[in-house]
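no rush on this but wanted to send it before i forget. theres a chain ive been looking at and ive put its sequence and its fold in token form underneath. please have a look and point out which stretches look like helix strand or loop to you. thanks a lot i owe you, the record is right below:
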Amino acid sequence: MILAAALALPLMMQASPSAAPSPPGLWRTHVNDGLIRIEQCGDELCGHVAGSAELKEKPDQADVLNHDPSLRGRLVMGLLILKLKPLAPGRWGDGWIYDPRRGATYTARIRMAPDGQLRLTGCVASFLCQTQTWTRAG
């Protein structure tokens, strides 16, 4: 009986709520062509552009649509586009996301869904928001 309990313990630990998925890793955006690498940067989460169909064809693409003309020469590949603070288990916010396709920055928050997907909400104003679902890339 003790042996059976000892063998079952690792399985029970894997299924525990404390083993919930976390954001660091490579994510496919909602349109399935963008790749974002999310990493810890100090206490915060940071996201960098890791690829897209467009960048595959033109890897030296500059951030030409940025609203700040002084930033239009920087490369999109590797660009920091997401920075968030931890709010609660499985939730980050109090930060921003930058969309190089529009050249605009939005307030942002993310949460890890029970299915392991990432739900990202970006807002122009507190009442004008859009949520996207990102999936972990292989």
